[in-house]
What does this fold into?
Amino acid sequence: MPTISFLFKDFQQLLGKRMPVEEFENILLLYAKAEVESYDKRTDEIAVKLDDTNLPYLWCPEGLARLFKGILGQQKGMPKLKVSNSRYKILVEDSVRNVRPYITAFVAKGKRIDDYTLKQLVQMQEKFCESYGRRRQKVSIGMYAYKKITFPVHYKAVDPASARFVPLDFNKEMNLNQILQQHPKGQQYSWILKGFSAYPLLLDDKGEALSFPPIINSSSTGRLEIGDNELLFEATGTDEESVNLAASIFAQNLADRGFEIFSATIAYKGRNVITPLLKPEKVKITPEMVEQGTGLKLNNPQLKQLLERAGYDFVGSYASVPHYRADIMHPVDVIEDVAIAYGYDKIADEPLSSYTIGMPVDSAPAINLLRKTIIGMGFQEIFSHILTDKNSLITGVGAVELENFMSETYSAVRNSVLPQLLDVLAKNKHVDYPQKIFEEGIVAAREGSRISEWHSVAFITAHSKADFTEMKQYVTALLAAAAAKFEILPAEHPAFIKGRAGSIVVNKRSVGIIGEISPSVLSKWGIETPAAALEINLNLLLSL
Amino acid sequence: MIAGKTAEMAASLHRLERAVLPHLSKLSSVKDIVAAARMQEVEVLRALQWLQNKGLAKLTEKIEEIIRLGENGKNYVKLLLPEARFLNSIANKPQTLAVIKKAANLSDEEIGASIGALMRVKAIEPVAAAAEKTFKITESGRQIAKAGLRAQRFLSGRNFPVGINDLSDEEKNIVAELKKRKDVIEEEVVKKRTAAITELGKEVLKKASTATETVDRLTPEMLVTGKWKSAEFRSYNLTAAAPRVFFGKPQPYREFLEEIREKFVSMGFEEMTGPIVESEFWNMDALFMPQFHSARDIHDAYYIKEPKYATDLPRQLVKKVKTAHENGFGTGSKGWRYEFSEEKTSRLLMRSQTTACSSRKLASEDLKIPGKYFAIGRCFRYDVIDVKHLADFNQVEGIVLEEGVNLRHMIGLLKLFAREFCNTDKVKVVPSYFPFTEPSAALYAKHPELGWMELAGAGIFRPEMVKPLIGKQVPVIAWGIGIDRIAMFKLGLNDIRELFSHDLNFLRSSKVV
It folds into this structure.
């Protein structure tokens, strides 16, 4: 969820009216799926957190102001973006087809770029590329000092060792391999180019490098400076729709700030595309569809009014989606915007009318009865994490380990509950004994390529005289409560003293283990009190 | 003090108090009382403590330094000091060192030390003319041998341990010298307890000696013989603290989740479950979350090391979901418009949301329409663990399916949750975003104590998700409740990690109701 910050004064200027912060906050919550994180009265800086990861046009004050204008009735329907035709051309070589096939561009002119505008452009660029652009893989954006560039611009893939330029923040010429290895941005984003033998490069007609997308701009042309009043925007990526969206959003934002936008012609092999693309998509919406989804009964003029508040044009049952939005996949997306424009706070609720019978999952009643029985035997219940340290797993049972664990403490799924009870004993050595504790919960193990999960219950008694006999008393009582006839057959288990470990057998099938914890295990955990324990597979015992 | 009160106190004396009290008029040292009363020290101390609490005795503790004999000290009492043995071996006639060493049973080291010590007090002198080194006793040596060496007299004459303060100045000097030797004297700081009877105690003692013998405990024998009829039972001090015992108790958070389960069952919801090791298919793809969604990153979910892929996915259904992602599966949707990977969909990971249970339920054959379902399940996220975040935690969520339900019913359901879980009608329902629902909403409720909180999220599942799973378009309201904050509030916790605490004192003393 992106969080952005801007000056509230700037927002009000874009909106064209003054507004108290409280009102801003309220409208944000009800209409923009967003909330104010902080507002600093002294600096006028406001931070806004946006919920919708699929609606990047709102991640900037320009977009928010546009939404507010619709909601407040200052702007009916889609804002018009005037794009002037131009001769600017980007020649795309077929060599980029594999590595990064798409590009969009436009030129913006006519306003002085000040420090704040530059910061806003960079913030939007970063948010868009990191989140929507999937950390620059899907989309990355570059902005350049227009006056230094000789058109047409060339977009091609080149041999990384032979192409050289001075990247931003460095003062020596480097080839593309060196940039990936030595430049911080190269190190951060080199994964995107892994496996490719030719890397994308943007050059102007004189052969001057503009940038090495999606890594870094050149330090000569690829730097916008305060005071510039013309800029070249480009976005490259692996998804044509997403790069087009980037151009549409930035063009609209710059136009909202008073820039004149000039289109660019992208010359792919065999086709030309003029960007930014401004052909709005049309979605059929009827009052019946809205009623089905929201329960709101609207007539056509009411529907038109609400759609126009939400920024759509509506003509003859068709809603036109603004060019700076790419989130509309299905009419339900438009219908939600109608409901939001109507106001969730004004929608009357209705109760569910169907009658259904509630019931817990099959295993729950039996497991809860066993829990109560064990508690009745004087045991304190424990509730632990299911993730555990892979080094504390029981040996001999296949481990389900995590590939990308953050800390060893949570690096595997527990394959037994017993180690977690030992952890409790180890952490409570100075607490009153006897310590009688138990836990019921999910465990998992791997057998070859199969992972199985089951409910397991383990309990442990620790005090100076804890022994096998005590544990056998408990298992006798517990299995009597579960109405199961059982016998204990000698068994070996790494956790127990040899000759004092048994397998709990019900219907000729081993359902669990019982024994006195071996001193080597106790000392490994730093436990200084004898302990006896048992663990039972409840799926086997209860045939779950 | 009125007479009735002292009589009452006398009658309620505990067996131990009754045994100790008479000795206090004669003895003061606890050690002596222990010996005289023939009781264990802990019993005497306990009785004295009780007597003191009642104002019948005064117990004082003094810190005292004492000395006791060490290993060698004890030997020297038995065998005498090396220099004493040296002196004794030449009492009758001069002897060579070899003879002395053998007769007095001395080591070379002890021989050297003894000669030094005895020469210093002029008790011995070497025989000059002898061929071998020979020593004879002097006149003053004879005097010393007769009276015994000073240090020997001290060691053999004193009862140890002895208090430093009980030593004469001369004895203190001896101790200082003996301390230079290894393991002869050990020093220790001990508590010395003394007790004295108070005036009130004397009164009560008088009454106690004339009171009838009281009975401490009713025995089976007394019941059988009828002896209880003549017995008088000692009154108990009902305010005295009883020793702590620890009973079996449910874990409070687990119990809380059981209550939630009961609540949903009572509202007509049927429980659903699913595995915690899940495929991306059920956890994400079946929910119409695009494969490029940021929550599907190695920085957001935990992936399984081995095996990496599920082998039991329903192939037909995977094809339908793939079509939905790529072009909308004939629902009127454009879909996410990318190439869906069947390898990625079978990748195994730790379930990151209980919505995985909902997707399994929607695709199952026993799905009921209308139907209400809920799941309480463990979920796992790649998060830094702190007061607000856990690597594994519980989610509560579910679905409601019914022909004709819409956003208005969803808002109604959310308001019902606000009443059930926050006991409030003060709510705000605002738009929200989930990749698999449209429309979507968040519920803020004003909890009577916590104030405004985000209690739940809900939405209507997208047609692109529902149609491949059920086979037809049915409105499905999906919801999830942020149960952790309510649990923490109910259990009085500020740190989410305490939900799974391994602190036994905390668990033993936590409230469960």
